[in-house]
Amino acid sequence: xxxxxxxxxxxxxxxxxxxxxxxxxxxxxxxxxxxxxxxxxxxxxxxxxxxxxxxxxxxxxxxxxxxxxxxxxxxxxxxxxxxxxxxxxxxxxxxxxxxxxxxxxxxxxxxxxxxxxxxxxxxxxxxxxxxxxxxxxxxxxxxxxxxxxxxxxxxxxxxxxxxxxxxxxxxxxxxxxxxxxxxxxxxxxxxxxxxxxxxxxxxxxxxxxxxxxxxxxxxxxxxxxxxxxxxxxxxxxxxxxxxxxxxxxxxxxxxxxxxxxxxxxxxxxxxxxxxxxxxxxxxxxxxxxxxxxxxxxxxxxxxxxxxxxxxxxxxxxxxxxxxxxxxxxxxxxxxxxxxxxxxxxxxxxxxxxxxxxxxxxx
Amino acid sequence: xxxxxxxxxxxxxxxxxxxxxxxxxxxxxxxxxxxxxxxxxxxxxxxxxxxxxxxxxxxxxxxxxxxxxxxxxxxxxxxxxxxxxxxxxxxxxxxxxxxxxxxxxxxxxxxxxxxxxxxxxxxxxxxxxxxxxxxxxxxxxxxxxxxxxxxxxxxxxxxxxxxxxxxxxxxxxxxxxxxxxxxxxxxxxxxxxxxxxxxxxxxxxxxxxxxxxxxxxxxxxxxxxxxxxxxxxxxxxxxxxxxxxxxxxxxxxxxxxxxxxxxxxxxxxxxxxxxxxxxxxxxxxxxxxxxxxxxxxxxxxxxxxxxxxxxxxxxxxxxxxxxxxxxxxxxxxxxxxxxxxxxxxxxxxxxxxxxxxxxxxx
DNA sequence: CTGAAAGCGCTTACAG
DNA sequence: CTGAAAGCGCTTACAG
Lengths: 362, 362
Description:
The structure is a homodimer.
Chain A: H1 4-11, H2 15-23, H3 30-43, H4 50-57, E1 62-67, H5 71-74, H6 78-93, E2 97-102, E3 128-132, H7 139-146, E4 151-154, E5 163-167, H8 169-182, E6 188-192, E7 202-203, H9 206-210, H10 215-230, H11 235-238, E8 240-242, H12 248-262, E9 266-269, H13 272-284, E10 294-299, H14 302-307, E11 310-313, H15 316-332, E12 343-346, E13 349-351
Parallel strand pairs in A: 1-2, 1-3, 3-4, 4-5, 5-12, 6-8, 6-9, 9-10, 10-11
Antiparallel strand pairs in A: 7-8, 11-13
Chain B binds a DNA duplex through helix 2 and helix 4.
């Protein structure tokens, strides 16, 4: 690998002169600069090495995205893809690379409290991080804060003083539930993806609901319960089922259990993926949507429109745009005392399609 | 930022001792090591900094993916997403991060040949690269080769001695065309996404076909032409239209022009996105698929199944798996003389659904 | 098992 | 405008 030293030697100048040729053209005469670059070209010198540069300057030129679970799951999740598209739009404006960190790769502080390898491989590889939808108090998030890596949270966790992009999850969830109640439904089932990252599947009792570490789902479920209570329904009337994951397969399993056990007339799902899985499950049981079952989702991903799914629209791509923009702003502006954290709470919107209908009076 | 030096000072040991505590436990007594790690913990030392480490060791712990065009386009492209899923599956096994480099961000060698900034920001940020579907002789690919960054090509360009993952594009394309010919179609239109990255749109003449820099599309088009010629049709009988991009919008525009100008009974598309766009265009013109128009795609993305699209299935995810596996192997095995480049050519398969049918005899 | 030295490639004060 | 020095944080021979 040819380095600045080699170029300097061949050009008959000092090594810093080569650095100036690339980074501070004003410090050199035009002739000197051209000579150096010509020699570099001839030697096949590829330009300043990022590692050397960033060790000195502290800047890398990449931003990172934390990914819970496996990377391959993330790329299978439409709402994550939408977020990535949004981040990508800003990333390219700002000329940075985007690095994805699957968290299940990272070695974290040992649980037993003994001194262990607390390494977070993020450090040094990126200038800042976007943290989307992590559980409360995840050790990785603690590590990021402790290392003072600049970061922006999308959706969760809500951290005091952190830059944040999200929506009013509880309010949107109430709107979801209200829609079904207004259509006359009272026997309503709920499908959530997961309340804790422990892959638990099945019916959710009050205790598990309250102990949830996933803020987004907990907030939505809280919204469902609040809205239902105003209509005279208790938590136990709702029949909440947890899929234990984010994909269609586990969603269908959860919905099948729910339908078999409680025969609801409507299902509220905490994501479109879960809602579409519920529709598949219903169809497999020879039920027609919306004639035999109303289903409402959350997100308004592209497939929702195709499938005629009634849902809550949230600006998935825009959230990525804002998160990336916030992060780039932070990185370009040295922090000073009294800085307010940047916050953006987007509006959501009920989109009524054909998967929900008025309950026939018996 | 607390560094090894600080930890060493506080622990009363040399700085290399701290390094050993993290990386070569055998070099220290257990007591010494525990003491150092305890002090590190107490100081909030986050572990060895990647930049410092990689400057010495030459290893980063991340692999990169080159992305033509904008990052946000890539995340909108189902076949790119599938590739990413495959790469993700291996990445997590090997405990590496995945960095995406949008090429339109990268500064490349000036076209005029004058000495310029030839920087490829990739260097130093990743240990190796996956290069998917780039034009022949792209300056970025040349830069990668010149800098001796380990890389694996997916689909294109075909480079002598390069590690490679792909399919038999020409053969698969012939199969596509053969399917329509066997159904009796003779007035056949072709929709390709793009033959050159110059955003040209419209009908493609023989000269443009031959000057294409996009190997994959060129190969497929060559397959169409070869197969058609065996059935007595010339290039000019095929009415090839170029969308000038990869998304549905430009695909619909191209298909609309094709349908209006030549009223074909069948369309061969070089991707499922283009095929589905063609179906939309046909429907907008009050044509029924397959009654008035047969359409065949390429890729077999998820939407193809839902839409009943006849297509060529290629293992999109598996290509990512192999590319990542190849790269990880290369990085873990020092290269030696006489190494054969790794190659994997996957089989493809015609999947007949409901978007194609036998041409009614007039 | 332990410590002091050298150096990875670079940038940035600093002195001429 | 130009050059020599220092140092970013780390790892790896090398000597004890």
